[in-house]
Amino acid sequence: MSAGAIHSYADARRLARRRLPWMVFDYIDGAAGEGVAEARNLAALRDIILEPRVLVNVSQRDLSVSVFEHEGRVPFGISPMGMCNLSGPGADVMLARIAAKHQVPCGVSTVASTTLETMIEEAEGHAWFQLYFSGDGSGTAKLVERAKAAGYKTLIMTLDVPEVGRRPRELRRGFKMPFKIGPKQFIDFALHPQWSISSLIAGAPDLANFQTPEFTFDRTESRARADWDFLKRLRDSWDGNLVAKGVTHVDDAQRLREEGVDAIQVSTHGGRQLDAAPPPILALQAIRKALGDDYPLFYDTGMRSGEDVVKAYMMGADFVFFGRAMQFAIAAGGRDGLDAFWKLISDEIGLTLAQMGRTTIPGPAARF
Q1: Where is the binding site for FMN, in residues?
Q2: Keyword set for this entry (predicted)?
Q3: Which CATH code is given to the segment(s) 3-366?
Q4: Residue 140: its pLDDT value, please?
Q5: How does DSSP classify residue 297?
Q6: Is 102 a catalytic residue?
Q7: Strands 70-72 and 65-67: what pairing?
Q8: Can you give the residue ranges of every domain in the chain?
Q9: 170, pLDDT greater than 60
């Protein structure tokens, strides 16, 4: 099957599952605990109803949305994801380039498999750097300065990982960063030769931002010392846009606004952190009602289709981000797979707007 066989998120995921080693697929696809939080949010998204309207001229539809300095041609971007090159050689750069083409933000993870300097260059400036606090925060401060030097204008501070969540599927596969190859992993890779050979030729994915002695990172290191005082120091040291990612509680959202955060990204890390977490799509609606129409709210978690994008805007989002779906598209068909999925989502958004009798992305007046 080829990229032309991608007609839905499920198609991309199915093709990716065939081509990726089990360890890699379960790392990308897995969730915390038993996957209850992920399933609960998907159910909440499914149950949102969009009202069709008739006899409205919708022949000309505009999908563009402005977000910070980006005049986006489509109303969605790319959430920061660690080790994207596991989904296919050069995946990080593919994401950066498609973001540049459509002038939308591409999140660049602290644990990306391509350096933050390369990513902002490939994205032609359409890149936001995502930051993890770790240890005593000294390494975090160094990364902030490095992002400044590279020209980043927006910093995403991920707040919902005080400790890395337990994801049984990746634990059963023995997933670690960097890789530790044992007998099970060797067999896994041998049974997926297309991925293994292409990855061998391109070079095994690694934590690209930590290849020099002054920059170190331990995925398992505690991040529990991050607090409001840390946020104040970060706000004082960063003069660009500051986004707080991983927020679902109204009280936290209100205080973040008071502390000078420029935007909040409502998210539960794709359901990968707390299995009992509330559906973030419903948290988005509650936070929007509490903060009013003017404060920027972004959303990720559970995005699977163009209809999902429109639903998120109806629930209060000012911009929406896709995560693992983009990795599955790349795993399914490389750059062609990513292009196919991107077009699919864009087409679905346009069709959804037409059914709703709308010609533009829903704004404040249309929210529930």
Answers
A1: 80-82, 109, 130, 158, 245, 267, 300-304, 323-324
A2: Flavoprotein, FMN, Oxidoreductase
A3: 3.20.20.70
A4: 87
A5: E
A6: no
A7: antiparallel
A8: 3-366
A9: yes
